[in-house]
């Protein structure tokens, strides 16, 4: 006999299985489409952040370049007297005070003169002035709001010759405006770089070099102001892998035995920065090979991280802008929707199982009664009261139960008649046997028995 599933379980399964499959399929499709939408959203958000960073850097770096060009025009056209130190001091002081991010504006000449105005951390300005021929080096004076010296503060290094400084020599060498490599400003301990341009007389002779020190702390402040995602970060590195700025609180330089040096991104204390740069090196072998925007991903602490890298080569700089966003920042909503879908699906499944069980009981209960009645008939113990609950129903099962009771009555009547006839036949058979012993004609008796048997079958 082949194994078969009971109708008692088949009916609930018939309802529950398609419903469960539909719920699971819906959840899987919703999760997949949600994941794709999240990845598209992260890519779009990353690109938007990178565009904002590029625009800010362009604007931020344009200021010193524009000021340098302005100073170049002013000096080369004799609009300011380089020998008028008080006038030149006020001129530089106004520029430093008016433009955010300008840390230091100065002029070095071929005669070895140096004059500059420097922004202090407390918002005040100082004048730095000296000549290569002076043994005590450059002197530092506090300036009031009118650009007047309020008193000498200190002397800097002895015998400072501006003509031997790297920024001066590089500007003379390239003959146009350019940027120095990034270095750490000694007075403020922050990263910065110098924009320098050579100044010539109308006759073409070199007068000197105008330079502006630009601090990069504002770049980190801008990156922190970006609304990327709850745990997303942005940072900038150069082609050597050194950190330029980041949206984290980590300083972009190291302090080793009192000496400051730039922070390689691979030595960052931020796991995301360190792992991102390692991922780029594993993929591209060298940061110098990244010439086009890159979108990639990696896992960090069992969490998927999506990153975008864009090279920036404007304004003479060669940096990489990186935005990293953990997928979980946006997948949490997808997971919540998935959990909600599964809870709803589970609730509906429980309801379906309950309703399926009730429907199964509604169908199986009269069948069980009929089955028990059939066994009772076989055992000759059937009673109509056994099917009373089935007969009372007004549906097809009730009609079937009524027909079953009527059939059972007919069967019981026939069995009773057959029993009575069999008793009679046994009695007559006994008479025939006795008659055969008394020499009565057995043929006559046999014919009588056969006739009575036919009548019994007809009456049954």
UniProtKB/TrEMBL annotation:
The chain crosses the membrane at residues 6-32, 340-364. The keyword Transmembrane helix applies. It is found in: Cell membrane. Residues 361-416 form the HAMP domain. Pfam families: dCache_1, HAMP. The lineage of its organism: Bacteria, Bacillati, Cyanobacteriota, Cyanophyceae, Oscillatoriophycideae. This is Sensor protein. It comes from the Bacteria. Keywords: Cell membrane, Membrane, Transmembrane, Transmembrane helix. It is a multi-pass membrane protein.
């Amino acid at each position: 006999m082949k194994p078969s599933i009971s109708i008692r379980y088949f009916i609930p399964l018939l309802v529950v299985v398609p419903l469960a499959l539909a719920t699971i399929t819906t959840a899987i499709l919703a999760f997949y489409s949600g994941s794709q939408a999240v990845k598209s959203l992260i890519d779009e958000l990353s690109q938007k952040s990178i565009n904002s960073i590029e625009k800010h850097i362009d604007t931020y770096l344009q200021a010193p370049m524009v000021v340098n060009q302005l100073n170049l025009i002013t000096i080369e056209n004799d609009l300011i007297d380089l020998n008028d130190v008080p006038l030149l001091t006020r001129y530089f002081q106004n520029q430093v005070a008016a433009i955010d991010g300008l840390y230091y504006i100065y002029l070095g000449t071929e005669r070895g003169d140096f004059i500059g105005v420097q922004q202090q951390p407390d918002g005040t300005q100082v004048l730095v002035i000296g000549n290569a021929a002076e043994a005590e080096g450059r002197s530092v004076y506090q300036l009031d709001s009118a650009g007047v010296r309020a008193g000498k503060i200190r002397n800097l290094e002895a015998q400072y010759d501006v003509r031997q400084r790297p920024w001066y020599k590089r500007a003379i060498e390239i003959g146009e405006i350019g940027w120095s490599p990034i270095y750490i400003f000694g007075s403020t301990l922050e990263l910065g770089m110098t924009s320098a341009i050579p100044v010539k007389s109308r006759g073409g002779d070199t007068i000197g070099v105008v330079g502006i020190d630009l601090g990069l702390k504002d770049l980190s402040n801008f990156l922190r102001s970006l609304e990327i995602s709850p745990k997303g970060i942005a940072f900038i590195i150069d082609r050597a892998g050194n950190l330029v700025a980041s949206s984290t609180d980590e300083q972009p330089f190291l302090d080793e035995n009192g000496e400051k040096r730039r922070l390689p991104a691979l030595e960052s204390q931020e796991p995301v920065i360190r792992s991102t740069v390692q991922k780029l090196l594993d993929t591209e072998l060298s940061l110098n090979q990244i010439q086009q925007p890159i979108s990639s991903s990696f896992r960090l602490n069992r969490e998927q991280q999506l990153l975008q890298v864009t090279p920036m080569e404007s304004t003479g700089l060669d940096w990489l802008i990186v935005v990293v966003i953990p997928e979980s920042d946006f997948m949490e909503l997808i997971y919540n929707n998935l959990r909600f879908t599964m809870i709803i699906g589970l609730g509906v499944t429980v309801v379906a199982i309950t309703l399926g069980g009730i429907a199964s009981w509604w169908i199986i209960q009269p069948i069980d009664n009929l089955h028990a009645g059939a066994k009772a008939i076989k055992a000759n113990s059937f009673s109509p009261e056994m099917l009373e609950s089935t007969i009372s129903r007004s549906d097809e099962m009730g009609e079937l139960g009524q027909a079953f009771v009527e059939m059972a009555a007919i069967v019981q009547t026939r069995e009773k008649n057959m029993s009575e006839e069999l008793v009679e036949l046994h009695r007559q058979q006994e008479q025939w046997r006795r008659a055969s012993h008394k020499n009565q004609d057995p043929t006559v008796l046999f014919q009588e028995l056969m006739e009575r048997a036919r009548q019994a079958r007809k009456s049954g």
